[in-house]
Specification:
Elements (H helix, E strand, L loop, with lengths): L1 H17 L5 E5 L9 E5 L2 E3 L2 E3 L3 E6 L5 E5 L4 E6 L1 E5 L5 E3 L2 E3 L2 E7 L1 E9 H12 L6 H18 L10 E2 L15 H9 L5 E3 L2 E2 L5 E2 L4 E2 L3 H5 L13 E2 L11 E6 H6 L7 E5 L5 E6 L2 E3 L1 H12 L8 E6 L5 E7 L7 E2 H9 L4 H8 L4 E2 L1
Helix pairs in contact: 2-3, 2-4, 3-4, 3-8, 3-9
């Protein structure tokens, strides 16, 4: 019986450790540093055992794929090696326009590659402040923090490996460093630091959110297709709470016709199917078919997200034959939590638990 009890305790501890929040997260800093061969660095900071207390510096690549730390005023090279590890002296390290908690590892591979190894709590605080405007309500901050914590915990200890690192873009979660963090955000994250989103007896394997749904969210399966199958807890809900969003009303944008047609093999595409919220699910062109979500990503990457901010979109001929009209409502893919809707519910007195229950009705917080 004693052996059985010990085995049970070991099993419980193994499960808990497997799902424990990682101590640190590796964030690949690409948003401002992608394909750069030179980045500014401002003191104070430390490299190895040497502290640089003042001055401005440049990190740059060399012909030998090394990283060079160059002091601008003195016009001299201070360090040159394959990888330079920069640690903070005070509250963070200022790289370019942003300041980061944790350690920066910089390596050269034709361009500079910068990895921020940051404590998980600092990362969550920055994501909440980077994703949501400063005027949003506390309960909206808390709801987003729970989703980010749930995502991180599912990464586990593997998040410290480069192969599974997070990128600092909206493809993952927007992360802009310490300047996005306020005392209020720190307090909100601390209030839910041990809360996670569960589906049944397990943590929700995937959680999603977006800026504004413009009337209703969609199911993961209808938007992501095969990628959303099995995520039955990610269902669509009616939502009129995001009417204060700048993306509630339809946006219209003219794009060059030839550039538009090039995406579809020279043929004008046709929306064959849409879900009940008006998000295209199947688009036909040039004897091919694609998901509406993939086409939306292609349109955004080609013409910029200002041209088609929401996945609730359509297109048509323009009165000017040189252009095509793109129209869209909302912002983001439209699955999971609606950030502007969450804020309006918070303004109406809903708690973060009630907000999450609204957008994830089959899930629990614990």
């Amino acid at each position: 019986m004693k052996d059985l009890f010990c085995l049970l305790i070991f099993f419980i501890l193994t499960i808990e450790s497997a799902l424990a929040l990682p101590r640190t997260v590796s964030v690949i800093l690409k948003d401002k540093n992608d394909r750069c061969d030179k980045i500014g660095l401002t003191a104070p900071f430390r490299v190895k055992d040497k502290t640089f207390g003042r001055g401005k510096f440049v990190l740059q690549t060399t012909d030998n794929d090394e990283v060079e730390l160059f002091e601008i005023l003195a016009r001299k090279t201070l360090v040159k090696q394959r990888v330079i590890e920069i640690t903070p002296v005070l509250s963070g390290v200022r790289l370019g326009e942003r300041k980061y908690a944790g350690v920066l590892k910089v390596r050269a591979n034709k361009y500079l590659e910068v990895i921020n190894i940051v404590p998980s709590k600092d990362y969550v605080e920055s994501v909440v402040g980077s994703e949501l405007p400063p005027h949003f309500e506390d309960e909206a901050y808390k709801a987003l923090a729970v989703l980010t914590l749930t995502r991180l915990e599912l990464l586990g200890a593997s998040s410290t490996r480069l192969a599974t690192s997070i990128v600092d873009s909206t493809q993952y979660e927007n992360y802009t460093g310490l300047q996005a963090v306020s005392p209020r955000i720190k307090s909100c994250v601390q209030a839910v630091i041990n809360k996670r989103l569960f589906y049944g007896s397990h943590q929700a394997p995937k959680v999603y959110y977006h800026s504004a749904c413009a009337g209703g969210t969609s199911s993961a399966e209808s938007v992501f297709g095969e990628g959303g199958r099995g995520l039955k807890y990610l269902k669509g809900v009616k939502c009129d709470y995001c009417q204060e969003s700048p993306f509630w009303r339809e946006k219209e944008h003219n794009v060059p016709r030839q550039k538009f047609l090039k995406l579809f093999g020279g043929k004008f595409p046709t929306v064959e199917e849409s879900d009940k919220e008006g998000r295209p699910t199947r688009i036909a062109f040039n004897n091919k078919k694609s998901s509406g979500y993939k086409v939306w990503l292609s349109l955004g990457r080609t013409f910029g997200w200002g041209a088609v901010p929401g996945n609730k979109y359509n297109f048509s001929d323009s009165p000017d034959p040189k252009f095509v009209v793109l129209r869209s409502r909302g912002a983001g893919h439209g699955v999971g939590l609606c950030q502007w809707g969450a804020n309006e519910q918070a303004k109406q007195g809903k708690t973060y638990r009630e907000i999450l229950k609204f957008y994830f009705p089959d899930c629990q917080i614990r």
